[in-house]
Amino acid sequence: MQSLGAFPEYHVVRPAAQPVDRLTPALFPPPKSNNDYPIVGVVHSGVDPSNPLLAPWIAGREEFVPASDRNHGTFVAGLIATGSERLGR
C-alpha cells in the first residue's frame, strides 16, 4: 500500500557565519615533526601548489586541473590539514 502526504516544510532556525580573516602561520601551523599524520587524498579540483601554508602538509600530488581553478580544492585541503585546530581538539 502506498500513500501520499504533504511535503514537510523546513526553515532556517538561525543562520550562522564566521568572519574570514587572512591566514597567518599562527592560525595555520605546519605539521608537528613528532606527530604521525594520516595521508588523505584530496580527489577534487586540485590544491594550489604555491600556497606556502599548505605546502608543508602536501605529501604528493597529481594535477589534472589548471591552477586558476584550484580554489575550492585548496579550501578543502585546508580544512583537512587544520580542521581539528579549528574545533579545539
3D structure, described in words:
It is a single chain. With 89 residues, the chain is mostly helical. The chain has a domain at 37-58 and 69-89. The chain is 18% helix and 0% strand. The chain has one helix and no strands. The chain has one helix at residues 71-86. The longest helix has 16 residues, at 71-86. The chain is elongated, with a radius of gyration of 19 Å. The N and C termini lie far apart (49 Å). The relative contact order is 0.17. The mean pLDDT is 80.
Task: Draw up the topology in text.
Blueprint: H1 71-86
Q: Roughly what fraction of the amino acids lie in strands?
A: under 5%
Give the number of helices. 1
Low-confidence stretches: none
Indicate the overall shape: elongated
Taking the alpha carbons of the first and last residues, their distance comes to 49 Å
- Arithmetic mean of pLDDT: 80
Biggest sheet architecture: none
Secondary structure category: mainly alpha
What's a quick, concise take on this entry?
With 89 residues, this protein is mainly α. The chain has one helix at 71-86.
Features:
89 residues; mainly alpha
